[in-house]
Amino acid sequence: TLFMLSYSLFVFLQLERQLLMQNQMRERQMAMQVAWSREFLKYFGSFFGLATLGLTIGAVRKRKAALLAPVVPLSFVLAYQVDAAYGSLMHRMREEAESIMVSESERLALPQGMPTFESIEKSRRAKAHLTSLLER
After folding, report:
1. Which of 82, 99, 110, 119 has its CA at a distance of 20 to 30 angstroms from the CA of residue 68?
2. What domain count does the chain have?
3. What is d(CA 96, CA 100) in angstroms, rounded to the nearest whole number?
4. How far apart are alpha carbons 82 and 127 in whole angstroms?
5. Given its phi and psi angles, is residue 114 left (phi above 0), alpha (psi -120 to 50 degrees) or beta?
6. What would be one Gene Ontology cellular-component term for the protein (predicted)?
7. Phi, psi of 5 (to 5 degrees)
8. Per the domain annotation, does 118 fall within a domain?
9. For residue 22, what are the domain limits?
10. Which of 19, 20, 37, 21 shows the shortest CA–CA distance to 90?
């Protein structure tokens, strides 16, 4: 019984470490995503500024306000990138995801249900058998 107790503790600690590691990896991926948004914003912001300046000069010189039309969709992209890089986009997405998990959990079901050891082994054996047939 002492062995079983120590083994259970070992399994528990191993699972806890695995969960902590997965959470750290998730946090790092989210940080990379925010960093990417901020880096992209630098380049897109510069492009947007130069494009707006050039289009404005062209519109004034040719007296055609229609030349400013591309600024409208570009401003939406710029606003989205600012929100992703420095705003509350991530928080709103997290809240929406939590709401979906609570009220629309049926949308999250995997096709053919949760993978089991048996289903994984069956798939692995089928692939191994197929590989051996192809090698002949």
Report:
1. 82
2. 1
3. 6
4. 46
5. beta
6. plasma membrane
7. -65, -45
8. no
9. 2-110
10. 37
Task: Categorize the per-residue pLDDT at 76 as very low, low, confident or very high, splitting at 50, 70 and 90.
Answer: very high
Q: Please check whether residue 117 lies inside any domain of the structure.
A: no
What is residue 136's predicted lDDT score, i.e. its pLDDT?
Answer: 65
- Assess contact for 67 and 59: CB atoms under 8 A: yes
Per the domain annotation, does 37 fall within a domain? yes
CA distance 104 to 125: 35
| Distance between CA atoms of residues 63 and 92, nearest Å | 42
> Across residues 16-37, what is the average pLDDT?
95
| d(C-alpha 67, C-alpha 51), whole Å | 11
How high does pLDDT run on average in the chain?
92
* Assigned domain for 120 exists: no
Number of helical (H) and strand (E) elements in the chain, helices listed first: 4, 0
Q: Is the dihedral of CA 59, 62, 65, 67 positive or negative?
A: negative
- Mutual angle of helices 2-62 and 71-86, in 10-degree steps: 150
Is the pLDDT score of 135 beyond 90?
no
CB 48 within 8 A of CB 75: yes
| CB neighbour class for 35 (10 Å; exposed up to 12, middle 13-18, buried from 19) | exposed
